[in-house]
């Protein structure tokens, strides 16, 4: 029975092409909108995930506290409450895999006739590991360079673009920083922007001791502004934070009634918040687009009810020659399914095409997943079946005698 029913359903759809096209239009718009919105939402999630990955995983940032001079209080990070000894002690804690003391600021760089103001990061070789930052070329500095305050540097992509000519290899060249020559021994892989929009590639990394003695200067020997701590896993991070806090309070001789003279920032928590916000936005976009699916389903119900009314006499004849109620139900339900599925297929093509067009015109990150496409198709087909069932049931419930009398 299936093949004749499919043929009859196709004939019914083709008998009034304009009405059929307008009926399917609701499903086409609904499915296309859902696919496009889900592609944009998942693209945003992917972009956020990529940004988060550039910050480093399982990472805590410990910032020095404030200081007060002549009644004037500085902001956080400008005090001198953290020491190299603190970093060394933290490295001995359980579940701590990497510790990188940092002293940074902005300074002017000069190469030939060009100059550029960039973020100068003074740290140890473990900084690259803590930040999950790879080298693009050359090599990094060593612990011996830190002990000797060697004047060597690693340059970020943005710094290279603004100091060197296109195609010029910076490795081996000498730049000037704070009127001091530095040899470029390596270049950093591109990281792009972080969560607050700052260009991470606009950075130069030098040995910590070099930064303290020859670039920034520190009023207290061994003081640093930031200590980065990388935990062994995401599960270990709460315990690491508790251990670090307890250790630093003990080393800084803080009484129970005194506040911490440092701040601990959990970058993973900030990243999770950003990711959750993006997920909510993606769900919201999908929900808004799904409303058009509902409208399309109502359109199918409406046109099927009209079809039942127009074909009442035909239904009576079918029943008179032996068609059962379930045959009539299957016939009209199959017509609704064909309307829905055909509209879904066209909508999928338009939705995917629209997503690719948005990506080409705006450079927005678009992610089209097979799972999202299947879900959109299944939901749309389900909507068609749901809204087509009532008209089909109404047709199957007609009295054969009354149907034959219908004019």
Instruction: Tell me the span between the first and last alpha carbons.
Output: 28 Å
Order of helices and strands: HHEEEEHEEHEHEHEEEHEEHEHHHHH
User: What is the tally of beta strands?
Assistant: 14
Lateral arrangement of strands in the main beta sheet: 5-6-11-8-10-9
Which stretches of 5+ consecutive residues score pLDDT under 50? none
> What is the alpha-carbon Rg in Å?
34 Å
What's the pLDDT, averaged over the residues? Answer: 80
Strand fraction: 15-25%
Q: Profile the largest sheet.
A: 6 strands, mixed, barrel
Helical coverage, percent range: 55-70%
Task: Walk me through what this model shows.
The protein is an alpha+beta fold. Helix 2 (17-55) packs across helix 11 and helix 11 runs antiparallel to helix 12 (370-396). The relative contact order is 0.19. The protein has a 6-stranded mixed barrel. A two-stranded antiparallel sheet has the order 2-3. It has helices at 2-15, 17-55, 84-90, 126-130, 143-148, 157-163, 208-215, 237-251, 267-310, 312-320, 325-362, 370-396, 400-405, and strands at 59-64, 68-69, 72-73, 82-83, 96-111, 114-123, 135-138, 152-155, 174-177, 180-188, 203-207, 223-224, 226-231, 262-266. It is elongated. It has 13 helices and 14 strands.
